[in-house]
Design brief:
Radius of gyration: 18 Å
Strand order of the largest sheet: 1-2-3-4
Structural class: alpha+beta
Shape: elongated
Helix content: 40-55%
Length: 148
Protein backbone atom coordinates (compact mmCIF):
# COMPACT_ATOMS: atom_id res chain seq x y z
CA UNK A 1 0.00 0.00 0.00
CA UNK A 2 2.89 2.33 0.76
CA UNK A 3 4.24 1.82 -2.75
CA UNK A 4 0.84 2.61 -4.29
CA UNK A 5 0.56 5.81 -2.25
CA UNK A 6 4.09 6.93 -3.17
CA UNK A 7 3.54 6.42 -6.88
CA UNK A 8 0.11 8.06 -6.81
CA UNK A 9 1.65 11.04 -5.04
CA UNK A 10 4.46 11.22 -7.61
CA UNK A 11 1.92 11.35 -10.46
CA UNK A 12 -0.58 13.47 -8.48
CA UNK A 13 -3.28 10.80 -8.82
CA UNK A 14 -6.24 10.88 -6.48
CA UNK A 15 -8.82 8.13 -6.57
CA UNK A 16 -9.01 5.69 -9.47
CA UNK A 17 -6.21 5.71 -12.03
CA UNK A 18 -7.11 7.08 -15.47
CA UNK A 19 -4.62 5.79 -18.04
CA UNK A 20 -4.97 8.81 -20.34
CA UNK A 21 -4.18 11.29 -17.55
CA UNK A 22 -1.43 9.06 -16.20
CA UNK A 23 0.27 8.90 -19.59
CA UNK A 24 0.11 12.69 -19.94
CA UNK A 25 1.66 13.21 -16.49
CA UNK A 26 4.26 10.53 -17.21
CA UNK A 27 5.41 12.26 -20.40
CA UNK A 28 5.62 15.59 -18.59
CA UNK A 29 7.67 14.16 -15.73
CA UNK A 30 10.01 12.31 -18.10
CA UNK A 31 10.69 15.54 -19.99
CA UNK A 32 11.21 17.48 -16.77
CA UNK A 33 13.61 14.93 -15.26
CA UNK A 34 15.48 13.69 -18.33
CA UNK A 35 19.19 13.41 -17.37
CA UNK A 36 20.37 15.00 -20.64
CA UNK A 37 18.80 18.31 -19.55
CA UNK A 38 21.36 18.71 -16.77
CA UNK A 39 25.01 19.71 -17.07
CA UNK A 40 26.19 19.24 -13.48
CA UNK A 41 27.05 15.58 -12.75
CA UNK A 42 25.34 15.66 -9.35
CA UNK A 43 22.11 16.97 -10.89
CA UNK A 44 22.44 14.43 -13.70
CA UNK A 45 22.71 11.59 -11.18
CA UNK A 46 19.68 12.86 -9.29
CA UNK A 47 17.73 13.13 -12.56
CA UNK A 48 18.75 9.58 -13.48
CA UNK A 49 17.45 8.30 -10.15
CA UNK A 50 14.23 10.31 -10.49
CA UNK A 51 13.74 9.09 -14.07
CA UNK A 52 14.04 5.48 -12.96
CA UNK A 53 11.48 6.12 -10.21
CA UNK A 54 9.11 7.76 -12.72
CA UNK A 55 9.39 4.85 -15.17
CA UNK A 56 8.91 2.24 -12.42
CA UNK A 57 5.97 4.16 -10.98
CA UNK A 58 4.29 4.52 -14.35
CA UNK A 59 4.51 0.80 -15.14
CA UNK A 60 3.34 -0.09 -11.65
CA UNK A 61 0.30 2.22 -11.77
CA UNK A 62 -0.62 1.01 -15.26
CA UNK A 63 -0.57 -2.57 -13.93
CA UNK A 64 -3.15 -1.80 -11.20
CA UNK A 65 -5.31 0.61 -13.21
CA UNK A 66 -9.00 -0.33 -13.56
CA UNK A 67 -8.69 -0.29 -17.38
CA UNK A 68 -5.80 -2.77 -17.27
CA UNK A 69 -7.64 -5.02 -14.82
CA UNK A 70 -10.77 -4.87 -16.99
CA UNK A 71 -8.82 -5.84 -20.12
CA UNK A 72 -7.30 -8.86 -18.35
CA UNK A 73 -10.33 -9.89 -16.28
CA UNK A 74 -11.23 -13.04 -18.24
CA UNK A 75 -7.68 -14.45 -17.98
CA UNK A 76 -7.58 -13.56 -14.27
CA UNK A 77 -10.92 -15.26 -13.58
CA UNK A 78 -9.75 -18.34 -15.45
CA UNK A 79 -6.56 -18.50 -13.37
CA UNK A 80 -8.26 -18.12 -9.98
CA UNK A 81 -11.09 -20.56 -10.78
CA UNK A 82 -9.44 -23.28 -12.87
CA UNK A 83 -5.96 -23.50 -11.36
CA UNK A 84 -4.65 -24.27 -7.90
CA UNK A 85 -2.34 -22.22 -5.69
CA UNK A 86 1.14 -23.60 -6.28
CA UNK A 87 3.22 -21.26 -4.12
CA UNK A 88 2.89 -18.14 -2.00
CA UNK A 89 5.05 -15.56 -0.30
CA UNK A 90 3.97 -12.92 2.20
CA UNK A 91 6.00 -9.91 3.26
CA UNK A 92 4.88 -6.64 4.78
CA UNK A 93 1.23 -6.60 3.63
CA UNK A 94 2.09 -7.99 0.19
CA UNK A 95 0.93 -11.49 -0.72
CA UNK A 96 2.42 -13.00 -3.85
CA UNK A 97 0.58 -16.07 -5.14
CA UNK A 98 1.76 -18.37 -7.93
CA UNK A 99 -0.87 -20.54 -9.57
CA UNK A 100 -0.35 -23.89 -11.31
CA UNK A 101 -0.75 -22.25 -14.74
CA UNK A 102 2.41 -20.26 -13.99
CA UNK A 103 0.70 -16.90 -13.43
CA UNK A 104 1.86 -14.93 -10.42
CA UNK A 105 -0.24 -12.18 -8.81
CA UNK A 106 0.56 -9.67 -6.07
CA UNK A 107 -2.17 -8.69 -3.60
CA UNK A 108 -1.65 -5.46 -1.67
CA UNK A 109 -2.82 -4.89 1.92
CA UNK A 110 -3.05 -8.53 3.07
CA UNK A 111 -2.17 -8.58 6.77
CA UNK A 112 -0.46 -11.42 8.67
CA UNK A 113 -3.67 -12.63 10.29
CA UNK A 114 -5.46 -13.05 6.96
CA UNK A 115 -2.34 -14.63 5.46
CA UNK A 116 -2.27 -17.13 8.34
CA UNK A 117 -5.89 -18.05 7.70
CA UNK A 118 -5.12 -18.41 3.99
CA UNK A 119 -2.25 -20.87 4.45
CA UNK A 120 -4.12 -22.85 7.12
CA UNK A 121 -7.41 -23.10 5.20
CA UNK A 122 -8.69 -26.53 4.10
CA UNK A 123 -8.84 -25.17 0.55
CA UNK A 124 -6.52 -22.23 -0.11
CA UNK A 125 -8.25 -21.65 -3.44
CA UNK A 126 -11.72 -21.37 -1.93
CA UNK A 127 -10.50 -19.20 0.94
CA UNK A 128 -8.54 -17.03 -1.50
CA UNK A 129 -11.55 -16.56 -3.80
CA UNK A 130 -13.82 -15.61 -0.87
CA UNK A 131 -11.41 -13.41 1.07
CA UNK A 132 -8.45 -12.24 -1.02
CA UNK A 133 -8.48 -12.69 -4.79
CA UNK A 134 -11.53 -10.48 -5.39
CA UNK A 135 -11.22 -8.05 -2.48
CA UNK A 136 -7.69 -6.64 -2.60
CA UNK A 137 -5.86 -4.49 -5.10
CA UNK A 138 -3.87 -6.87 -7.23
CA UNK A 139 -1.61 -6.94 -10.25
CA UNK A 140 -0.15 -9.63 -12.41
CA UNK A 141 3.42 -9.98 -11.31
CA UNK A 142 4.79 -12.22 -14.04
CA UNK A 143 4.36 -15.47 -15.89
CA UNK A 144 6.54 -18.04 -14.20
CA UNK A 145 7.37 -21.42 -15.61
CA UNK A 146 4.41 -23.79 -15.43
CA UNK A 147 4.36 -25.89 -12.26
CA UNK A 148 3.13 -29.45 -12.54
Amino acid sequence: MKRIKEYKKLFEVEGPIDLKDLKKKYRGLVKEWHPDKFQDQEEKDLAEEKSTQIIDGYHFLVSIAPETKEANLEAYKKTITEFQVADWHHKSMLLEVTFTDGNKYEYFGVNKILFGKFINAKSMNNFGKRNIFNKFIYRKSMKASVTV
